[in-house]
Design a protein that fits this description.
Elements: E1 7-10, H1 15-26, E2 31-34, H2 44-54, E3 58-61, H3 75-96, E4 99-105, H4 128-143, E5 148-153, E6 156-157, H5 164-172, E7 178-181, E8 185-186, E9 189-190, H6 191-207, E10 213-216, E11 223-224, H7 225-235, E12 243-246, H8 267-270, H9 279-292
Parallel strand pairs: 1-2, 1-3, 3-4, 4-5, 5-10, 6-9, 7-12
Antiparallel strand pairs: 8-11
Helix pairs in contact: 1-6, 2-3, 3-4, 7-9
């Protein structure tokens, strides 16, 4: 596999893809960015045309149906993007001898564990979104046993898109108190940190030092949404006690949320790559970047 061939990043309009592209540019790696208007990953003809034109060495699939609640009533639509799309990319990668990195989710698990989910833990999604993302994982791993990578992530935030941190920054300035769920545990993950690991993993794949398979791309440590919000307030110089704990029952939604989304990170060391740092360290580094970004209503 020639190192001269560039990378292809799908879903290029999203938060994570933007940071992947920035990380590739910083490393001097040529890359093509394709958003959903440029490439429908579920369309075999369009996927084949994109591969014919760009002949990538590595594909990072950031394209996804991420509307978790909408997927409950539109599962077939979500499956087309989250299941059929990765399958088409995997088939093209097999034909063109390319590495595929599929971004997946903690929702493939049942969310009722009491210790971090290992990469090989049994999957048991409880939502339509989780089922469709699992279908994508299975398509990649089955089609590309030696060059398919699934990187599960969760609780993502970053610049250039709507996310929990941006929402808390906005609400801190207009709300005296906030009630935030305290019975869901996970690992807030900055897209910059995940993008760095995706690029390093792709480089390891090309060098033959990173084994194919499943990796967990989340920060270290764990917290609740309430604890996450309290830390955001603290970094803003606001009183964390203005964030008050509540339960998931207070915010009923069509799709069930995992109560426990903490993932283990053992496989990174097999690839010679350190796992992502603790979530609080990542948040501390991210806040100046996010505060410098124009907030909704202030631009």
């Amino acid at each position: 596999m020639s190192g001269i061939r560039g990378w292809l990043v799908t879903g290029a309009g999203g938060m994570l893809a933007r940071d992947v592209l920035a990380r590739l540019a910083a490393a001097g790696i040529p890359a093509v960015a394709l958003d959903r208007r440029s490439l429908d990953i579920s369309d075999p003809a369009r996927v084949r045309a994109a591969f014919d034109r760009h002949r990538p060495a590595v594909v990072v699939n950031c394209a996804a149906w991420t509307a978790v609640d909408d997927a409950e009533s539109k599962e077939s639509d979500a499956l087309r993007v989250n299941g059929e799309g990765p399958r088409q990319l995997a088939l093209a990668c097999r034909e063109f001898d390319a590495v595929l990195m599929q971004v997946s989710t903690d929702y493939v698990f049942s969310g009722d564990a009491v210790r971090p989910y290992a990469e090989d833990a049994p999957t048991a999604p409880r939502s339509a979104y989780g089922r469709t993302k699992l279908a994508g994982e299975q398509a990649v791993l089955t089609t590309l046993p030696d060059s398919g990578f699934v990187v599960r992530t969760a609780w993502l935030y970053g610049a250039g898109g709507g996310n929990f941190v941006r929402t808390m920054i906005k609400l801190e300035s207009v709300k005296d108190t906030l009630d935030v769920v305290d019975d869901q545990r996970g690992q807030p993950t900055w897209t910059v940190d995940l993008a760095d690991r995706l690029v390093r993993l792709g480089q390891g794949a090309l060098a033959g030092t990173a084994p194919a398979g499943v990796y967990h791309g989340t920060s270290g440590g764990e917290t609740t949404w309430c604890g996450f919000a309290q830390e955001i307030f603290r970094l803003l110089g606001a009183d964390p006690d203005r964030v008050r704990p509540t339960t998931s029952a207070a915010f009923a939604r069509p799709a069930p949320r995992p109560a426990y989304s903490v993932l283990a990170h053992d496989r990174w060391r097999q690839a010679g790559i350190e796992p992502i740092r603790d979530w609080s360290e990542g948040l501390g580094s991210a806040m100046p970047v996010l505060l410098a970004e124009p907030q909704e209503g202030n631009s």
